[in-house]
Structure prediction request, 464 residues.
Amino acid sequence: MTEVEARSAASRLHDQLEAIVEVLRRHDDESPLSAESQAELRRQLDELHPADIAFILESLPLDDRLAVWQLVKADRDGEILLEVSDAVRESLIADMDRHEILAAVEPLDADELADLVEDLPTAVLPELMASLDTQQREQVQSALSYEDDQVGALMDFEMVTIREDVSLETVLRYLRRWDELPAQTDKLFVINQDNLLTGVLPLHWLLVNPPEKMVSAVMAPDVNTFHPTDDAYEVAQAFERYDLVTAPVVDERGHLIGRITIDAMVDVIREEGESEALSRGGLREEEDIFASVWASLKNRWSWLAINLVTAFIASRVIGLFEGSIERLVALAALMPIVAGIGGNSGNQTITMIVRALALNQITAESAKRLWRKELTVSLLNGLVWGGVIGLVAWLLYDSVSLGLVMTAAMTLNLLLAAFAGVGIPVLMTKFGRDPALGSSVLITAMTDSGGFFIFLGLATLFLM
Prediction:
């Protein structure tokens, strides 16, 4: 999809949201939707993809969301529940009774059921599991036995397998018996009589080779084979690196147990990006933008408390130099510049390092080289931009000494920002923590307190 097409799709989706909101506005908060409005909303919803309906539900306040949810066709509920965020899914499921939940999940595949099971009410689970056949039950239990960030929790059990000792003509006849091939089928998985994966047969190879050839003569060994305990994000990176659409998942003995598909990997990459963005801001989990005040408060309070402590420390640093500030008022006007530039530089560094850690691009040796490189960059930036602001301070306050102090403080605070920008995520990774967790809060705290101390300390030593 081109950039123009992407903008057009986004614009169209926004227009659809506005159209639905306009219908909802026609009635007041106390009266239910009229039959005419309900019919119009149903017509609009029927024309939308489940992912688009999910977007609209996430964009509506809770009362409107539930009103629209009640108008969605029951046979589409399961697909939409898979598409919405965890926080919004919780609010939708809470509005459904037991029969509605069971009807919604009944059409879903085993891997899709596994995605929803943890969000379903406990009272529904026994009846749900009893409604599955033996194979589905085993598949759901298998998917649930793995962590959320492992391939086993995301793998698809619906796939096409063929034997290596048959001809391509036999394979073609076999495929014609299928009503529909599983989604994202770009290759067939070749197994032997013991269900051991021996190779793959891309569909385009099947089509361009003579039908009398044997599968074993045409197939290719698949080097992109994964295990159910593999980290899902690392597998997603492999999908991006090798332009994969599907890949087989095998157990420790090489038995084919499932496949992983590109749509699951796209979701992993998106969720990883969202999680990293939330973590940098100190949010503990994804938040429904229309969540209750109490729910939002619980999600945000912890890092705000830490920020309060760091802000108090910064204020006490300033308090140590009250006398200097009283004697030279210019210090009060200039010190936010030192802290602000340091925080921006630190955030640039920490963003780059967190990304590199996520891609496994940093080793113990390369971390030392990164420190040296970032410190050099910060030294040069400090001298250049510190010199600029030092010149401005000299011209504004007619003090060469103040300009030199400003330059030195800017340079030292940028060096501190570089050191912390590399050190914070590396140390958090070493201790098994998410390197993005609260990184923006921590780097800002260090550059604020450090910047104030450096600038006011230098001013006290050389200007008083």
The first strand starts at residue 161 and ends at 163.
